[in-house]
Specification:
The complex is a heterodimer of chains A (112) and B (114).
Chain A: E1 4-7, E2 10-14, E3 19-25, E4 31-37, E5 43-49, E6 55-58, E7 61-65, E8 71-76, E9 85-92, E10 100-102, E11 106-111
Parallel strand pairs in A: 2-11
Antiparallel strand pairs in A: 1-3, 3-8, 4-5, 4-9, 6-7, 7-8, 9-10, 9-11
Chain B: E1 4-7, E2 10-13, E3 19-25, E4 32-38, E5 44-51, E6 57-58, E7 67-73, E8 76-81, E9 90-97, E10 103-105, E11 109-113
Parallel strand pairs in B: 2-11
Antiparallel strand pairs in B: 1-3, 3-8, 4-5, 4-9, 5-6, 7-8, 9-10, 9-11
The chains are: A mainly beta (112), B mainly beta (114).
């Protein structure tokens, strides 16, 4: 079974609208990473969360990790076309460093 | 954020030849680098963990003799796909960890084997 569930799989929003992407694990995480990827390109690091209840923001993107460290959400405020892409969450399950379990990604499209 | 650079970003080769991909951490030292493979519209799959000055650790199912990894310095790791075949065509991505534990990825290298 998938250890890391990411939802939704795809999302189409109107420019200016807010949106949330979720990432849920069946196990307690050591760390949770959020990346943005355009198909066929590398991953752009967004944020890393390690502590239960932690919240970080960068420009219009906010990510939170719940107290149990099993669920994270990525929230984009007032979306813009530049936010379009594939968002991936990667979870550190306590294995070797760098051995992240990735979600399947959320494809975000922003309509102007 | 920190920068990880891969080269080449795009390569086409004939079946049976070997291809080398470089991964460099440009502004930090990465004692450990990681190599991933990504098939179209799928998530990343870890292939191996590359430690500076020692042998790489390969994930189950990854042929170490086919995917040679060398981590010559704290800023450079290389992946060589030996005797490449069309089924090796894929998008290969590397990553490195800075001291804060943040994991940064390269831009990726697209390999096409004819």
């Amino acid at each position: 079974s998938q250890e890391l569930e990411q939802s939704p799989q795809s999302l189409i929003v109107q420019e200016g609208k807010n949106l949330t992407i979720n990432c849920t694990s069946s196990k307690t995480l050591y760390g949770l990473y959020w990346y943005k990827q355009k198909y066929g390109e590398g991953l752009i690091f967004l944020m890393m969360l390690q502590k239960g209840g932690e919240e970080k923001s960068h420009e219009k993107i906010t990510a939170k990790l719940d107290e149990k460290k099993q669920q994270s959400s990525l929230h984009i405020t007032a979306s813009q076309p530049s936010h379009a892409g594939i968002y991936l969450c990667g979870a550190d399950m306590g294995g070797s460093q760098g051995n992240l379990i990735f979600g399947k990604g959320t494809k975000l499209s922003v309509k102007p | 954020g920190a920068v990880v650079s891969q080269h080449p970003s795009w390569v086409i080769c004939k079946s049976g030849t070997s291809v080398k991909i470089e991964c460099r951490s440009l502004d930090f030292q990465a004692t450990t680098m990681f190599w991933y493979r990504q098939f179209p519209k799928q998530s990343l799959m870890l292939m191996a963990t590359s430690n500076e000055g020692s042998k790489a650790t390969y994930e189950q199912g990854v042929e170490k003799d086919k995917f040679l990894i060398n981590h010559a310095s704290l800023t450079l790791s290389t992946l060589t796909v030996t005797s490449a075949h069309p089924e090796d065509s894929s998008f290969y991505i590397c990553s490195g960890t800075n001291r804060a534990g943040e994991l940064f990825f390269g831009e990726g290298s697209r390999l096409t084997v004819l």
